[in-house]
Design brief:
209 residues, alpha+beta, Metallo-beta-lactamase, Chain A, seven-stranded mixed sheet, six-stranded mixed sheet, 3 helices, 33% strand, globular
Length: 209
């Protein structure tokens, strides 16, 4: 059984000093496996540990951390998860990698449709940056896509809303379309869970992922 819970809701907003940015951090429970999507920003460390504690977990109980992309507001607390496998796409020209925290071994993997556990997989979602992945989690409530900054904020679920800054707008639009086709729920990179209202004649293309 797969369950999804947002531990910390991230923000990305202008402040007088510049931009306040910390990513949403999401916990996926799949049987005995605990998976985290993104690790948040520097100021999130204590809140992250506390939020895990409320779930009866510590950082040592996390088996896998999927990093959607390598911006600091999504990666700053990776040092907490020393026993976990860290999955990411670190380079546009590389298929992806897993860093095994327990033994410092790095393995190359293909993160396009990489099954983490049954019902949970990664997909490629470039646009915000070239090397970007999202996580698809199929639960009894529906399909969640935890998408990092492939959809940065909840307002970008509206296809008429353009992102502020992206590596490639066409790639962003294609990734957003893919996410909205498959998802019943979207977790943006900086926001909480959003339920997707499907058109009555639209059939989600879940079998393609």
């Amino acid at each position: 059984m797969v369950e999804v819970k947002v531990l910390l809701v991230g923000k990305h907003e202008k402040v007088p000093e510049g931009t306040y940015a910390n990513s949403t951090i999401t916990l996926i429970r799949a049987g005995e496996k605990n998976i985290l999507v993104d690790a948040g920003s520097f100021g999130d460390k204590e809140n992250l540990i506390e939020s895990l504690g409320k779930e009866g977990l510590s950082p040592d109980d996390i088996h896998t951390v999927v990093v959607t992309h390598l911006h600091l507001d999504h990666t700053a607390n990776l040092d907490l998860f020393r026993n976990a496998d860290i999955v990411t796409k670190h380079s546009p020209v590389s298929s992806g990698l897993v860093f095994h925290g327990s033994n410092n071994i790095v393995s190359r993997v293909d993160v396009e449709n990489l099954e983490i556990v049954p019902g949970v997989k990664t997909i490629l979602t470039p646009g915000h940056v070239e090397a970007h992945i999202s996580v698809v989690a199929v639960t009894s409530d529906g399909t969640y896509v935890i998408c990092g900054d492939a959809i940065q904020k909840s307002n970008q679920i509206d296809i008429h809303v353009k992102p502020e800054k992206v590596w490639n707008l066409e790639a962003f639009e294609n990734s957003r379309k893919l996410i909205l086709e498959v998802a019943d729920y979207v977790v943006p990179g900086h926001g909480g869970v959003v339920q997707i209202k499907k058109k009555s004649n639209q059939s989600p293309k879940r079998n393609n992922l």
